[in-house]
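#onboarding

Welcome to the new folks! Below is a worked example of what a typical request in this channel looks like: someone posts a single protein sequence, and someone else replies with the predicted structure as tokens. Don't worry about understanding the tokens yet, we'll cover that in week two.

Example request:
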Amino acid sequence: DTLIGTGQYDYTGYLIASKRLGKFDLHANLSYTIVGNPPGANLEDTFGLSVGTIYQPTTSYELFGEILASTPSGGGEQSATGTTVVPEAASGEVVVTVGAGKFFSRRFLGFISLGGDNAGAHQERVGFKVSF
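Example response:
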């Protein structure tokens, strides 16, 4: 659907690393996406990077944060060469999220988080996670 995407397939590979250091869980992801080009477009492949941590000072609480960044595919640029402009193709972005959670039981976590990105979007989230 051209209203929500380019109509072409993208292919992404990931390298994911995680390490527990004391009360910290550290995570890093690196990605490379081969972007599908619709006819007449000239989109570029993208790189992505995210780093995050979860800090659990006690068995009842945790704090978390993540920074995620990606390069643009070039889809939203105005075309001076006559190539098709694809407004729904990915633009570069940086997103930061921080939050806190409380374990109400060993398997049930309630949390709140705040996030924002370089385009001025903000998100406040209240949620829960159930582990099985």
